[in-house]
Amino acid sequence: MQTPLATPVPVLRLPRGPDGSNRGFAPDGRRAPPKPEVPEPPESRESREQQARASLRERYLRSLLAMVGRPVCFTLHEGVQVIAHFGATDLDVANFYVSQLQTPIGVQAEALLRCSDIISYTFKP
């Protein structure tokens, strides 16, 4: 039994290459001319500010999570310092719920501190 003849394949003759002696390919192996690099547009000032704000907000929220159940020293207006165990905050972060609030006039079992009254707070992680 004879093997059937393969169908002839058309041959495409490539044009002469860049150096004139080879056919179709650059001598350094490039198959296409390099594309000019288009510089990416610089980030706008607003997007950099937004990224910075998002990073600061995330750090702040992580600090709130780290404070839960720990003694925190709050500095209020007029330089008043109080110590309390941090419990939680509301959704708007407008109030802090604390327990065992030690004030200059006594200890409160539970209290809400308005964030607008707080100048700073510190705690040991």
Automatic annotation (TrEMBL):
<feature type="compositionally biased region" description="Basic and acidic residues">
    <location>
        <begin position="42"/>
        <end position="54"/>
    </location>
</feature>
<keyword id="KW-0007">Acetylation</keyword>
<dbReference type="GO" id="GO:0000387">
    <property type="term" value="P:spliceosomal snRNP assembly"/>
</dbReference>
<dbReference type="GO" id="GO:0005829">
    <property type="term" value="C:cytosol"/>
</dbReference>
<dbReference type="GO" id="GO:0032797">
    <property type="term" value="C:SMN complex"/>
</dbReference>
<comment type="subunit">
    <text>Part of the core SMN complex that contains SMN1, GEMIN2/SIP1, DDX20/GEMIN3, GEMIN4, GEMIN5, GEMIN6, GEMIN7, GEMIN8 and STRAP/UNRIP. Part of the SMN-Sm complex that contains SMN1, GEMIN2/SIP1, DDX20/GEMIN3, GEMIN4, GEMIN5, GEMIN6, GEMIN7, GEMIN8, STRAP/UNRIP and the Sm proteins SNRPB, SNRPD1, SNRPD2, SNRPD3, SNRPE, SNRPF and SNRPG. Interacts with GEMIN6; the interaction is direct. Interacts with STRAP/UNRIP; the interaction is direct. Interacts with GEMIN8; the interaction is direct. Interacts with SNRPB, SNRPD2, SNRPD3 and SNRPE; the interaction is direct.</text>
</comment>
<protein>
    <recommendedName>
        <fullName>Gem-associated protein 7</fullName>
    </recommendedName>
</protein>
<dbReference type="GO" id="GO:0003723">
    <property type="term" value="F:RNA binding"/>
</dbReference>
<feature type="domain" description="SUZ-C">
    <location>
        <begin position="1"/>
        <end position="29"/>
    </location>
</feature>
<keyword id="KW-0507">mRNA processing</keyword>
<dbReference type="GO" id="GO:0097504">
    <property type="term" value="C:Gemini of Cajal bodies"/>
</dbReference>
<keyword id="KW-0539">Nucleus</keyword>
<keyword id="KW-0508">mRNA splicing</keyword>
<feature type="domain" description="Sm">
    <location>
        <begin position="59"/>
        <end position="125"/>
    </location>
</feature>
<feature type="region of interest" description="Disordered">
    <location>
        <begin position="1"/>
        <end position="54"/>
    </location>
</feature>
<dbReference type="InterPro" id="IPR047575">
    <property type="entry name" value="Sm"/>
</dbReference>
<dbReference type="Pfam" id="PF11095">
    <property type="entry name" value="Gemin7"/>
</dbReference>
<comment type="similarity">
    <text>Belongs to the gemin-7 family.</text>
</comment>
<dbReference type="InterPro" id="IPR020338">
    <property type="entry name" value="SMN_gemin7"/>
</dbReference>
<comment type="function">
    <text>The SMN complex catalyzes the assembly of small nuclear ribonucleoproteins (snRNPs), the building blocks of the spliceosome, and thereby plays an important role in the splicing of cellular pre-mRNAs. Most spliceosomal snRNPs contain a common set of Sm proteins SNRPB, SNRPD1, SNRPD2, SNRPD3, SNRPE, SNRPF and SNRPG that assemble in a heptameric protein ring on the Sm site of the small nuclear RNA to form the core snRNP (Sm core).</text>
</comment>
<keyword id="KW-0963">Cytoplasm</keyword>
<dbReference type="InterPro" id="IPR024642">
    <property type="entry name" value="SUZ-C"/>
</dbReference>
